[in-house]
């Protein structure tokens, strides 16, 4: 009697268990790195968004020939009297220089907050607005936007008195100044 033995394809329970265990270990090792990468990308995106809105504010001031400002705002029709930009901001024309969006002033842009974001944004103490004059310059000293997460400083956008800006992504552990 001739019996043909055919080997069946597949995995044994032991092979499947070992493969699952190895994958679980690799995922556990890689997960913190993926989380840090995701947060770094969120910080970069927020720095880019702040920079783009600052550039839009400066460009509007130059093209209008009068002051245009960007201020923190949770209501999106008035400026908040603090340096916390986490809830959002607005950009408005300010030809009369009263540092607030009047009903006659044009609101040029708004940014709403993301409820899912764990990032906070604060500016330098005493600098509640980014204001550009008709030449695209800011008054006073540098204005720094600090981007923080869980008490650690993650990034900065710095605007100098000439109105130019630069960004800095921080990799070293540093306490948030706010």
Overall description:
InterPro entries: N_methyl_site, Pilin-like, T2SS_GspH. It is a single chain. The protein is an alpha+beta fold and 178 residues long. It has a single domain, classed as 3-Layer(bab) Sandwich (minor pseudopilin epsh fold). Helices cover 29% and strands 25% of the residues. The chain contains one helix and eight strands. The protein has a four-stranded antiparallel sheet, covered by helices on one side. A four-stranded antiparallel sheet has the order 4-6-7-8, covered by helices on one side. It is elongated. The model has no long low-confidence stretch (mean pLDDT 88).
Give me the count of strands: 8
Quickly count the domains.
Answer: 1
Q: Stretches where pLDDT falls below 50 for ≥5 residues?
A: none
Mean pLDDT: 88
The SSE order reads HEEEEEEEE
Shape: elongated
Helix run count: 1
Strand content: 25-35%
Biggest pleated-sheet summary: 4 strands, antiparallel
Structural class: alpha+beta
State the helical fraction: 25-40%
């Amino acid at each position: 009697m001739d019996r043909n033995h055919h080997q069946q394809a597949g995995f044994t329970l032991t092979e499947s268990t070992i493969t699952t265990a190895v994958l679980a270990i690799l995922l556990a090792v890689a997960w913190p790195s993926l989380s840090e990468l995701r947060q770094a990308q969120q910080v970069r995106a927020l720095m880019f968004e702040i920079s783009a809105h600052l550039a839009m504010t400066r460009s509007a001031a130059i093209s209008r020939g009068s002051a245009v400002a960007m201020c923190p705002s949770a209501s999106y029709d008035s400026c908040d009297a603090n340096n916390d930009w986490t809830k959002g901001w607005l950009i408005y024309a300010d030809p009369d220089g009263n540092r607030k969006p009047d009903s006659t002033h044009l609101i040029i842009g708004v940014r709403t907050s993301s409820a899912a974001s764990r990032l906070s944004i604060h500016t330098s103490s005493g600098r509640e607005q980014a204001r550009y004059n008709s030449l695209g310059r800011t008054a006073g000293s540098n204005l720094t936007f600090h981007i923080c997460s869980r008490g650690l400083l993650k990034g900065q956008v710095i605007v100098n008195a000439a109105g130019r800006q630069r960004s800095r992504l921080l990799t070293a552990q540093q306490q948030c100044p706010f």
